[in-house]
Write a structure and sequence with these properties.
The complex is a heterodimer of chains A (319) and B (270). Chain A is α/β, with parallel strands linked by helices and 319 residues long. Chain A is 26% helix and 21% strand. In chain A, the strands form five sheets. Chain A has an eight-stranded parallel β-barrel, surrounded by five helices. In chain A, strands 5-6-16-13 form a four-stranded antiparallel sheet, with no helix packed on it. Chain A has a two-stranded antiparallel ribbon with strand order 1-2. Chain A has one domain (2-300): TIM Barrel. In chain A, strand 7, helix 2 (108-119) and strand 8 form a beta-alpha-beta unit. By secondary structure, chain B is α/β, with parallel strands linked by helices. Chain B folds into three domains: 6-95, Beta Barrel (Elongation Factor Tu (Ef-tu), domain 3), CATH 2.40.30; 106-214, Nucleotide-binding domain of ferredoxin-NADP reductase (FNR) module (Rossmann fold), CATH 3.40.50; 216-263, no CATH class. Chain B has helices at 30-35, 75-81, 120-128, 148-153, 173-178, 193-206, and strands at 6-19, 22-28, 41-45, 54-57, 61-62, 65-71, 88-95, 106-112, 132-139, 157-162, 169-170, 186-190, 210-213, 229-233, 251-255, 262-264. In chain B, the strands form three sheets. Chain B has a seven-stranded antiparallel sheet with strand order 4-3-7-1-2-6-5. The longest helix of chain B is centred in the last third of the chain and has 14 residues, at 193-206. Chain B is globular, with a radius of gyration of 18 Å. Classes of the chains: A alpha/beta (319), B alpha/beta (270). Bound molecules: flavin-adenine dinucleotide (FAD), flavin mononucleotide (FMN) and FE2/S2 (inorganic) cluster. Flavin-adenine dinucleotide binds at residues 41, 54-57, 69-71, 73-77, 114, 117, 192, 215-218, 261 of chain B.
């Protein structure tokens, strides 16, 4: 029976009925999409990243369509943690799915400060750390690009909350496995893999960058193969769950991530194509598993990953 | 339950090419028609299933039929132009805040090119309210002044301008607005951004309030990504209520898809 199929996932202390998370910055606070998608049929919404102080955001244009994807440079426009706690967070209680807070900062202290205050709220089920920000304390080096900085942030944040901590890794690194391992040993409960790739697009008529911020983050199907490999490599390096993301548009794409070692997935840019995609993916995943006589999504996690043994071995469609 | 925006599959009823690359696509959507306000838009999902949805104004909305009027300028509009009667089109909407014109008696509507798609509904409603409506309509040449008879039939007075002089004034449509005989009490405009800026300038010279329907590029179209912003005066009733960040000098970035797409010209800080 298709309806008996178990799609639930465990991420740290978080139990989610579906493996589908809505990626940070792509789904507002869920409310914006409520008329178009039944939020009770998605796993969780990862909220837009919030910082200590309010941020104006980047100048326009902030979006550019590119082949098989898009560049964005929003610049973390957000009202800051004080206003957020006072005016936004209470509304999250009404949503029929888990709400995961996303924290961004420009110093180790601010990561800990914002996390401690946000995680203290019951409406927030877990915290995702967006560490793809420059560290103003060390010549602007990105936290996610340096194992030592990653470790320091994660340890500082781990010390201030017991809630599930998901650390979101950047693909703009030479060795993602080393950073994944460092995040795990510093106390992360899970990893989100990957954030956007850095990119740029130039208007050849105007001789100007197309983004107001010059550079931006590439997302969508264009980055999927990069993301699948990053998940595969991170999964071999850690034993905590991974939330795979990057260009997922349908169940086939999602299955690549599960087979590479992701326990759950996040969907970002595909919501801009059709807001029905996350729920369609859940239906298609059930059908895929049912057609192979499998009862649980957990049976396939990491099956394409030679580094992962499991008592249950499904040999693939031809085997 | 109060009907609001939703995502739906609709059946294409008719398709007409009004000028080279300018397509009018009618479809069956009584629920959409019932809740559409003038100046609202839909996110139309390109039928190939691989590209992001694109924002298009709701052109006609009457009875059981609504339509889109668009210019084929890239991959997504090309896919939408492939649709034929009987095909299914998926769309999300209606979205955004439309024009507001209650009480207006003499309205100048300025439209450039396919900007015309945003202004039929307000024009019709204004005529119904008993207002005088002048349509200042500009395009490259006479062929691209599409569907202008419909506006005349609806009761609008037409003033046209073309780049090549093939119909009406040769030059910019805003030059006609600047020279208009009696001053309107409200200006509504939709078109390319240089035309909107010129309209804002002319309207402020005339001392007439103007509402502009902007066409920033969108991603989500529903307010979820903060990608489609425009700088807006903090004091605007439409401004998102945000605490003041460091370095901010009285403006805040507002989402064109959510707070707009229609803004008061004097409140934009672009
Ligand atoms: C609220 C709103 C309502 C709109 N209503 C209509 C409408 O009713 N009819 C219509 O034809 N278009 C309308 N547009 C513009 C429409 O969304 C774009 O033309 C569309 O995104 C083109 O998609 P594409 O993939 O075919 O082209 P793209 O590949 O996105 O663009 C192709 C080329 O067109 C240029 N371009 C893209 N968007 C615009 C724009 N807004 N203005 C000027 N140049 C642009 C690009 O720079 C590029 O050179 C509207 C936009 C908004 C935000
Ligand atoms: C418009 C936009 C805004 C984003 N904002 C954030 C953000 O605030 N914080 C964050 O951690 N990731 C952000 N991301 C990255 C996404 O969460 C996601 O990791 C990435 O886009 C890859 O997934 P996708 O290809 O499915 O979109 C953003 C992505 C987009 C497209
Ligand atoms: S397009 Fe996403 S907020 Fe407007």
């Amino acid at each position: 029976m298709v309806s008996d199929i178990d799609l639930s996932v465990t991420i740290g202390k978080l139990e989610l009925p579906y493996p589908t998370l809505m990626a940070s910055g792509c789904y507002g606070s869920g409310e914006e999409f409520e008329p178009f998608a039944d939020l009770s049929q998605i796993g969780a919404v990862v909220l837009k990243s919030v910082t200590r102080a309010p941020r104006l955001g980047n100048p326009m244009p902030r979006l550019v369509a590119t082949p098989a994807g898009m560049l964005n440079a929003i610049g973390l426009q957000n009202p800051g943690i004080d206003w957020y706690l006072e005016n936004e967070v209470a509304k999250f209680a009404k949503r029929p799915c888990a709400m995961i807070g996303s924290v961004a900062a420009f110093s180790v202290d601010d990561y800990a400060y914002v996390t401690e205050r946000l995680a203290a709220r019951d409406e927030i089920a877990a915290i995702e750390l967006n560490i793809s920000c420059p560290n103003v304390g060390s010549e602007g080096e990105t936290f996610a690009c340096d194992p030592d900085l990653t470790g320091r942030v994660v340890r500082a944040v781990r010390a201030v909350t017991d809630k599930t901590l998901i650390v979101k890794l950047s693909p703009n690194v030479t060795d993602i496995a080393a950073i994944a391992a460092e995040a795990e040993s510093a106390g992360a409960d899970a990893l989100a893999v990957i954030n956007t790739l850095r990119g740029m697009s130039i208007d050849v008529h105007a001789w100007k960058p197309r983004l107001g911020n010059v550079s931006g983050g590439l997302s969508g199907p264009a980055i999927r193969p990069v993301a699948v490999l990053a998940v595969y490599e991170a999964a071999r390096a850690v034993s905590i769950p991974i939330v795979g993301q990057g260009g997922i548009e349908n169940a086939t794409d999602a299955l690549e991530f599960f087979l590479a070692g992701a326990s759950a997935i996040a969907i970002g840019t595909a919501n801009f194509t059709d807001p029905r995609i996350p729920i369609r993916i859940v239906d298609e995943l059930r059908a895929y598993l049912a057609a192979r006589g499998l009862r649980s999504l957990r049976d396939i996690v990491g099956k394409a990953n030679v580094g992962f043994g499991s008592p249950f071995q499904y040999e693939g469609d031809v085997g | 339950m109060l009907a609001g925006p939703s995502v739906r599959d609709v059946v294409v009823l008719d398709r007409t090419e009004l000028a080279p690359g300018v397509v009018l696509l009618g479809f069956y959507a009584p629920e959409l028609v019932a809740v559409t306000r003038p100046g609202q838009f839909v996110m139309a999902i390109p039928p190939g299933g691989e590209r992001a949805a694109t924002a298009l104004a709701i052109y006609e909305a009457q009875g059981e039929r609504a339509s889109l009027l668009f210019f084929v300028c890239g991959a997504r509009t090309r896919e939408l132009a492939e649709l034929r009667p009987g095909d299914t089109l998926s769309l999300t909407g209606p979205l955004g805040n439309g024009f507001t014109f209650a009480g207006a008696r003499d309205v100048a509507i300025v439209a450039g090119g396919v900007g015309i798609a945003s202004v039929l509904l307000p024009a019709q409603m204004l005529v119904e309210q008993g207002a005088r409506v002048r349509l200042f309509y500009g395009a490259r040449n006479v062929d691209f002044l599409v569907d202008r008879e419909r506006f005349a039939t609806a009761g609008c007075e037409l003033c046209c301008a073309t780049d090549d002089g093939s119909l009406g004034h040769r030059g910019f449509i805003t030059e006609l607005l600047a020279k208009a005989e009696d001053k309107p009490d409200l200006v509504l405009a939709c078109g390319p951004s240089p035309m909107l800026r010129a309209t804002a300038f002319v309207a402020s010279e005339l001392g007439v309030p103007a509402q502009l329907a902007l066409e920033e590029s969108f991603a989500c179209g529903v307010g979820g990504c903060w990608g489609c912003v425009v700088p807006l005066d903090r004091a605007s009733a439409q401004a998102p209520k945000f605490p003041k960040p460091a370095g901010e000098d009285g403006f805040v970035y507002a989402r064109v898809c959510k707070e707009g797409p229609v803004f008061w010209a004097h409140e934009l800080r672009w």
